[in-house]
């Protein structure tokens, strides 16, 4: 009985947490649409920041026994970025990857630097590959994908928010789906001070 009570309470907390996160996403969208969402960059280590994001996310994929790897071309990449926006970008990409990765599958995060004072952050997951039709609709607001097929809960706004925040950060996003890399989202952001 104690276990059941704890489980029910935990389930209610998860529901409330999900609703709160959904509302925060909606508020973020409103700010983007109204032009009130501003970028506030500060200097920091991109690799260290993303590593902390990944470590914070890891317990959320424990139930599916997913393997999460972080691979960086350098131990430290210093640059200018908005911590709040980058945190939301990474969280939403990881959340999306976790939904579509089968049990005991893997998610790989890569960080690479560019010659033009930029950084590329990619999130790739194993699992069923996406069709071009699916890729074309990924960034549409409230796009529901194949949530029912994969028995997941989705709001349809996470990836749209990623696109908005990436644009706000003066970056770009590309998506690929193939046998070699799986389903891969690549974010490229400028990290030079003069970009902002």
What does this structure look like?
By secondary structure, the protein is an alpha+beta fold. It is built from five helices and seven strands. It has helices at 2-34, 46-57, 83-100, 132-137, 158-168; strands at 42-45, 67-72, 78-81, 106-113, 118-125, 172-178, 182-190. The longest helix is centred in the N-terminal third of the chain and has 33 residues, at 2-34. The termini are far apart.
Strand content: 15-25%
Low-confidence stretches: 1-18, 147-155
What is the helical fraction, as a range of percent?
A: 40-55%
Please compute the radius of gyration using only Cα atoms.
Answer: 17 Å
Average pLDDT across residues?
81
Number of strand segments = 7
Largest beta sheet, briefly?
Answer: 5 strands, mixed
């Amino acid at each position: 009985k104690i276990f059941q009570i704890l489980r029910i309470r935990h389930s209610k907390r998860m529901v409330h947490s999900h609703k709160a996160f959904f509302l925060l996403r909606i508020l973020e969208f409103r700010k983007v649409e109204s032009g009130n969402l501003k970028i506030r960059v500060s200097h920091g280590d991109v690799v260290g920041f993303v590593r902390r994001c990944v470590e914070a996310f890891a317990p959320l994929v424990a139930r599916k026994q997913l393997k999460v790897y972080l691979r960086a071309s350098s131990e430290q990449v210093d640059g200018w970025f908005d911590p709040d926006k980058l945190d939301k970008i990474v969280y939403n990409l990881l959340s999306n990857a976790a939904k579509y990765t089968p049990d005991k599958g893997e998610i790989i995060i890569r960080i690479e630097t560019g010659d033009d004072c930029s950084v590329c952050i990619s999130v790739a997951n194993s699992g069923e590959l996406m069709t071009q039709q699916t890729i074309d609709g990924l960034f549409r607001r409230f796009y529901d994908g194949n949530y029912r097929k994969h028995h997941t809960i989705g709001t349809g706004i996470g990836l749209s928010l990623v696109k908005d925040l990436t644009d706000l950060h003066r970056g770009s996003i590309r998506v690929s789906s193939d046998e070699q890399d799986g389903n891969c989202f690549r974010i490229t952001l400028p990290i030079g001070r003069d970009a902002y």
